[in-house]
Amino acid sequence: MKTAILTISTSVAAGRNEDTSGALLAELAGAAGAEIVAREVVSDDRAAIEAALRRYVQSGAALVFSTGGTGLTPDDVTPEATRAVIERDAPGFAEAMRAESTRHTPMGMLSRGVAGTAGGTLIINFPGNPKAIRELFPVIAPTLQHAVATLHREPGGARGADGGHAGH
Predict the structure, then answer these.
(1) pTM (predicted TM-score)
(2) CA-CA distance, 129 to 157, in Å (whole number)?
(3) What does the pLDDT profile of the chain (168 residues) look like in tens digits?
């Protein structure tokens, strides 16, 4: 599963902070079977985020994980940029991550991260906090290979009566 990691952080992009969130996300994704083909840092700028996401979709990445820019501050624009790129929502990922996050802190409900597909790419927004990434990645990890396989299934291909999701 070719995977790109996109860190959204003005301070990291400016070299003032280290990209610990992106590094952890890459490590966890790799352990879950992903092949990390790209890691990039962009500022909290909607146009820059959209451009990076579109570039990874066009490059054929199966997965794009972003970290950062999902909160309530005015420069947290990752969800808006992601919505501009995705063609179909995949809300279960963000819902499951928020549910797990609120088990650890009530502040988890402040995350506005989204998930969806564009072409053959699944894009998932993670918070920018390494602790949150460590808590939340295990929630989605078991679904990734199946999600990618389903996303790349040919339209009208062989499926069960329930759309190919029995027992999953």
Answers:
(1) 0.90
(2) 40
(3) 999 999 999 888 888 889 999 999 999 999 999 999 999 999 999 999 999 999 999 999 999 999 999 999 999 999 999 999 999 999 999 999 999 999 999 999 999 999 999 999 999 999 999 999 999 999 999 999 999 999 998 554 444 434 444 444
∠ CA 120-36-152, nearest 5°, is: 20
> Residues 6 or more apart from 118 whose CB is under 8 A from it?
53, 54, 57, 85, 86, 87
Rounded Cα–Cα distance for residues 163 and 122 (Å):
19
Q: Which domains does the chain have, with CATH numbers?
A: 2-151 (3.40.980.10)
**Among residues 55, 61, 110, 118, which one has the least CA distance to residue 86?**
118
Q: Which two tokens stand for residue 133?
A: 């990434």
Q: How far is Cα 63 from Cα 86, in angstroms, rounded to an integer?
A: 12
According to DSSP, residue 17 is labeled: S
Is 6:52 a contact under the CB 8 Å cutoff? Answer: yes
